[in-house]
Amino acid sequence: MDWVKVEDKLPDIDDDYLTYVMDNGLSYRMEVQRFYLKLRVLKGIYADSSTHWEKTTWDDNLVTHWMPLPDAPEETI
Fold first, then answer.
1. What is the pLDDT of residues 45-61, one digit of tens each?
2. Does some domain include residue 74?
3. Pair 54, 11: CB distance under 8 Å
4. ∠ at Cα 74 (72, 77), nearest 5°?
5. For 28, phi and psi rounded to 5 degrees?
6. Of 16, 25, 29, 57, which sits 20 to 30 A from 73 (CA to CA)?
7. In terms of residue numbers, what domain contains 20?
8. Contact 19, 33 (CB under 8 A)
9. Is residue 35 part of a domain?
């Protein structure tokens, strides 16, 4: 799986994705978060309403990249 730039493409469906998030323009982190396709005002938001997916200069919890989650393990303990 490769990272997808938010400025290049947004997810096609509501689902959970692995995201790379710029936190207040100071640091970066990876998180699993849900993309809501229908909430197009910010082109997708999460339960954390200040986190959004869009190309912008506002740098408060901005998703810069995303990728689908891998499949779950076939066997569990």
1. 444 445 556 555 555 67
2. no
3. no
4. 100
5. -130, 150
6. 29
7. 4-68
8. yes
9. yes
Q: How far apart are CA 51 and CA 31, in angstroms?
A: 11
pLDDT score of 44: 47
- Give the tens place of pLDDT for each residue, 15-45: 889 989 887 767 888 888 878 766 544 444 4
**10 closest CA partner among 45, 43, 41:** 43
Q: In this predicted structure, what is the pLDDT of residue 69?
A: 93
- Which candidate, 32, 31, 36, places its Cα nearest to that of 10? 36
Is 44 inside a domain boundary?
Answer: yes
The answer to the question of residue 55 being in a domain is yes
- pLDDT-derived band of residue 6, with 50, 70 and 90 as boundaries? confident
18, 67 contact by CB (below 8 A): yes
Q: Which pair of tokens denotes residue 37?
A: 């396709």
